[in-house]
Amino acid sequence: MKRTWGLQLACLAVTAFFGVPLYLIALAAFASRESLDRFPLSLLPTDVSAETITTFLGSTGVVGGYLNSLMVGLSTVVLALLVGVPAGYALARYAFRGRDPYQLFLLLTRALPIVVLSVPLARIFLQTGLYDTTYAVTLLHTALALPTTVLITSAVFVGVPREHEEAAQVFGASPVRAFARVVLPQALPGIAAVAMFTFVLSWNEVLGATILTLNQRTLPAHVLTTLSDSPLAYRFAGGLALVGPAIVFVAVMRRYLLNMWGTTLR
């Protein structure tokens, strides 16, 4: 019983840790200018107004930044899964010389600061004509997401019994069909978790997108470069606009996470 209560308190503490800042940002984004200047500030929505968030969404570059962020995030997910899932499957199923050093090398690539990757990439993209395009940001975000994609999907495929795949092949399925009909459905929750992690990583990344673009910036890069001198209310509105789509994406993908954790949707 004590362990159950302790677990519930820990869950409440973690929820409050993430939920309270989101609540305060939303409260400030939907508050009127006058209520933000009051002291002390009310922790309840006593003076709700959509003026600030509406003005922010109507500002120059916000809608374009939204579309660029969505395009980059979804393209990064697709590209990272197309490359990372086969690599993770190979790591899980085949023993080859240098497999362990290869996994260590993947982790080392994540140790590099983003600016170390962005500056040389900016020069390459300038020479190839990809600079200031969403393709350049997509390639950078894919490079950042691939190590975790490969390692996590490898761990997911290790958890799928090899005997199931071999049994499908014994009954006449080709290796590709056995993978598609037997292995992939069992690994789908883990792959969904990787997709969610990749999308959130791409959505929140700001430094690389700022270096590689000028006019085709993602929303975080646009907010970073334009709202530094803006009023406080617009900064809260920008924060809420950045957090909202990521929360929606996580909410959509949560059913796959719950399935992976062995629970059921209510």
TrEMBL record:
List the InterPro entries hit by this protein, alphabetically. BP-dep_ABC_trans_perm (IPR050901), MetI-like (IPR000515), MetI-like_sf (IPR035906)
Does the record carry NADP as a key word?
no
Q: Decide whether keyword Thylakoid is in the record.
A: no
Looking at the record, the residues that make up the ABC transmembrane type-1 domain are 66-253
Q: What parts of the sequence cross the membrane?
A: 7-31, 70-92, 104-126, 138-161, 182-203, 232-252
- Tell me where in or outside the cell this protein is found: Cell membrane
Tell me, what's a Pfam family for it? BPD_transp_1
Q: Which family does it belong to?
A: Belongs to the binding-protein-dependent transport system permease family.
Name recorded for this polypeptide: Carbohydrate ABC transporter permease
| Native species | Hamadaea flava
Task: Identify the taxonomic lineage of the organism of origin.
Answer: Bacteria, Bacillati, Actinomycetota, Actinomycetes, Micromonosporales
